[in-house]
Amino acid sequence: MKITSSIIESLNDIGIEQIPENHSEMLESYGFDSLMLVMFISKIESKLNMKLDLSSLKLEYFRSIDSITEYLNKEVKS
Known about the structure:
There is one protein chain. The chain has three helices and no strands. The chain is mainly alpha-helical. The radius of gyration is 11 Å and the shape is globular. It is 51% helix and 0% strand.
């Protein structure tokens, strides 16, 4: 749950004020764009005290809160 709450906090921090109740909803519908993605990565790395490998990132990992959670859970375990 810590990862999901950190994702939501980070989305709020970058200006996404309305968080989808259904975490599988596309974040694009809430204003999440490429600039916000860059800001989000910086925020989530700081909150989770981790560094993401930017060379392996795929846009599909950041489509929804669920997809971000799944991706980050894999990253934390590796």
